[in-house]
Amino acid sequence: MGRKPLPKQRTLDTEIRREWLKKLMPFFTKYGFSSIRMDEMAVQVGVSKATFYKHFISKEDLISSLLKWKIEEISGYMPMLLDSTTGFAERYFKAVEISLIGLGGISNVLLSDLEREYPELHKQLATFQKLNLKVLGEFYTEARNAGFLKSSIDVKTLLIMEELILLQITDPNYLKQKQITLKDFFVKYLHIRSEAIVADFTPQMRAYFAQLEKKLHV
Predict the structure, then answer these.
(1) Is residue 9 part of a domain?
(2) Residues pairing with 149 in the sheet
């Protein structure tokens, strides 16, 4: 009788996993992940298939790690936004930059593959959106009361608008139909939103968004 195959053992080295995900991200952004096999991914990061499987035991494991990484990256804006030791303008615009950088690489084809192949993982986006709205609500209320946002802003209505936008814009079919990427939309949307709600939207703030769009190649 032949030897029974040993179960695959995953190596939980977060640093290596993230390094490989960063190398793979440009391919996922351009092609999605449905057509890329695990052995092809191993070649892209420069290791053997056996070594690759020690860190990711399946494609679902890899995509789950990818989603977790991107959500954590985008969520980096939250501590900044709620940092009461920093001025409102600095908190707001730094949070905008952090969240937009985190959105880099999340293409329509990647979202489409995620929704089609791993719907349960795709639902994590909805959970993230709820947390996002909670944090925004806390900041909007504080910033309006302090005079950074226009006093006429109704936070409840603004959050409903944000929720509707988030629900629609994470639909890859909608993005494809409108011929715009998630990152491109948010750079332009956040600029428009900021001009509408910030009490004193200065020329310097307008220049900030122009530089940000240039920096993110929008």
Answers:
(1) no
(2) 198
Q: How many domains in the chain?
A: 1
Is the pTM above the cut of 0.70? yes
Please tell me whether residue 194 adopts helix, strand or coil conformation.
helix
Whole-angstrom Cα Rg for the chain:
20
Given CA atoms 40, 41, 46, 52 in this order, what sign does their dihedral have?
negative
3-state class of 8 per DSSP? Answer: coil
Residue the block writes with tokens 């994590």: 124
The single-letter code of the amino acid at 95 is A
Range of the domain at 66: 14-215
For residue 198, what are the β-bridge partners?
149
Q: Could you tell me the two tokens for 143?
A: 């910033």
**Positive/negative CA dihedral, 18, 19, 22, 24:** negative
Q: What is the pLDDT of residues 98-136, one digit of tens each?
A: 988 888 889 999 999 999 999 999 999 889 999 999 999
